[in-house]
Amino acid sequence: MRLVLARVGALMMMAMSSGAVQAEAGCDKACLEEIMGQYRAAYLAHDVSAAPFADHVRFTENNIEMAFPDASWDTVTEEVGTALTLSDPQTGQAAAFMAINQSEIPGYLAVRLKIENRKITEVEHMLSTKRNLSSPPTPFAEPKDFVRPADRAAPVPQARRNSREELLSLGDGYFQTLENNIGEIRNTRFAPDAIRYENGMIFGDIEKDFRLGRYAFNNKVRRVPILVDEERGISLFRGFIDHKGVLADYTLTDGTPRRSIFREPHSWALLEMFKIQGGMITGVEATFITAPYNATSPWGPDNGK
């Protein structure tokens, strides 16, 4: 476990080397979340003057870097339901998971902001709509019907709160388990009633599926931690899941025969968060899109981890 913690800690240091900047600027948790609220309002209004942007903003949507503002900043028409806001004063970052409409096009949007001297300097979007799904399609539920469990936004009681290092380690253990899944649970734990949402679709029995080896077709899971909300007990990761497409038939640990749905090189790109209480993952939420095989993120460092 110490080796796992050290590894994850090293990844966090590489991914967030400028984290001390925000603490010096005095933007605490409330400040970060207020700025995220301003960002969401500005985004919906297509009005950059409605939020505190720096003179230069680095912007990506679905791992493509472009001038700011562009992409869904021009097309978003509505925010659907209730957003989940996360914040990490140690690194000066805020994030939000939400559902949106672009006219009649529904989608799931995950946003990460970097905030320095109370100005937004980085904007990262991961936006999943039916357009950017592929065959085999990733799950996609209607956003208007999506209701997030109330505990996701709630602070974790002190008695059940985990350290920053543990939040990172347990989240990374999820990805260790997902990669070359053969029925082992690797360096993480799940609550019996843990629920995962992928683009709004519910997956129960998280541990059961892992122990069955259902995801044997995942050849590589590249990921990097990008934010920790210690009060809410949430760690957030950016990542890719790579499928080489060479696995055809395989057998679950209970003897059930399966056939892989991935029969050509393929990757998913994702932003995925883990709610953790009492040393166990109690909930997962992810925004997934398809990506070119072995794609990388312009934010890095996330290739080969």
Quick take:
By secondary structure, the protein is an alpha+beta fold.
Structural summary, described in words:
It is a single chain. The protein has 305 residues and is an alpha+beta fold. The chain has two domains: 17-131, Nuclear Transport Factor 2, Chain: A (Roll), CATH 3.10.450.50; 152-291, Nuclear Transport Factor 2, Chain: A, CATH 3.10.450. The chain is built from five helices and 14 strands. The protein has helices at residues 2-15, 20-25, 29-45, 164-178, 206-212; strands at residues 53-61, 64-66, 78-88, 93-102, 105-116, 119-129, 190-198, 201-203, 220-229, 234-243, 249-251, 257-259, 266-277, 280-291. The strands form three sheets. It has a six-stranded mixed beta sheet. Strand 11 and strand 12 form a beta hairpin. Helix 1 crosses helix 4. The longest helix has 17 residues, at 29-45. It is globular.
Instruction: Quickly count the helices.
Output: 5
Low-confidence stretches: 1-5, 14-24
Top-tier CATH class of the largest domain? Alpha Beta
Rounded to the nearest angstrom, the radius of gyration is 19 Å
User: How can the largest sheet be summarized?
Assistant: 6 strands, mixed
Number of domains: 2
Q: How would you write the strand order of the largest sheet?
A: 2-1-6-5-4-3
Oligomer: single chain
β-strand amount: 35-45%
The computed structural class is alpha+beta
Under CATH, the topology of the largest domain is which? Answer: Nuclear Transport Factor 2, Chain: A
Order of helices and strands: HHHEEEEEEHEEHEEEEEE
- Tell me how many strands there are: 14
Mean pLDDT, nearest integer? 92
Globally, the shape reads globular
Percentage of residues assigned to helices: 10-25%
